[in-house]
Structures are given as C-alpha cells and as structure tokens.
C-alpha cells in the first residue's frame, strides 16, 4: 500500500505540468488590480512556466551529487526570475521573450532526461539566463497594475514551491527509476520544440 501511494505521488508530481492550461504570452486573466494571490497563482496558469519550474527542481535533484548541490539551480532560477519580472514591470523591451521561454523548455527537458551534472554556479547561470525571460513575460503581464510588488513576491514564492515539488520528485526517483525522469524530460523538451516551431 505504501509503494502504491508513493508511486501515485511521484506520478502526480511528474505529470503536474501537463495538468495546466496552455499559456503563451498572456494568460487571459484580467489584471486590473494585482496582489499577492494573483502573483502566487501566476506560475500555475501556463504549462510553459510550470514545466520549466518543476523541471529545474527535478533536474537539480537528479543530477545532484549530494544535498548541498540541490539548491544551486533553483536559487539561480528564482533570483533571475525576479530580475526579469522587475525588468518587465519597468517596461523595458526585451527581444525574443517567447522564443527564449520555448528554448528554456527544450534545454531543461534535455537536462532532466540526461541528468547532466554541472558545477553549481554553472547550473545556476544556465537556468538563470532562461529564467530572466520567464520573469520578463510575467512582468509585462503585471505592468501598470496596482499591487504589482506583492504580486511579484507571490510569484517568486510559487516558483520556489514548484522547485520544491520538482526536487521532491527527483530525489525520490534518483534510485527508484531511470525511465520516468527520461520520459518526463523528453516530454518537456518536445514541448519546447513545439513552442519554438510556433513562435519561429
């Protein structure tokens, strides 16, 4: 019974990105008054952002040599997501936001599928570079709204929780399954390819 429950839990976490509604560009939610709750829910409104955030946590756990390696990539992503969100809120025009979000899914998916190990600072830099574009997209959507600062805080908190969900799944799968992470990584990578084809 315990094995069944654990397997079900793992499957739900790994499949989490597939449960979200599609999101490319705007999420369709009216943003007249932003706030913590709206910002917190923001990363859950699109499969592209959701898959990237869970994927970063999953890869971090799968590739980590030990517990101290777990947080490099998630912290790098969250920090640069914040930088991107502030940039978007300020109205700074950043080119190729959607193509870079799509490319991030391709790269993160391949990292998960291959369990590629990178030094901590390099891992943080790689995912952080892509996180800027995720943050910019969110910042554009919240730009001009009252309470945008609280919304950004909620968004970063939600991002951290999604990373934790990915880390939890990855840590549990490290010694139990090699196939499931490969399938999940390949699915995210293929989704990235599909998005790249749409925005090309």
UniProtKB/TrEMBL annotation:
Name the record gives this protein: HupE/UreJ family protein
Organism: Variovorax robiniae
Membrane-traversing stretches: 45-63, 70-90, 96-114, 121-140, 152-172, 179-199
Domain of life: Bacteria
Signal peptide extent: 1-26
Keywords assigned by UniProt, alphabetized: Membrane, Signal, Transmembrane, Transmembrane helix
InterPro entries listed in its UniProt record: HupE_UreJ
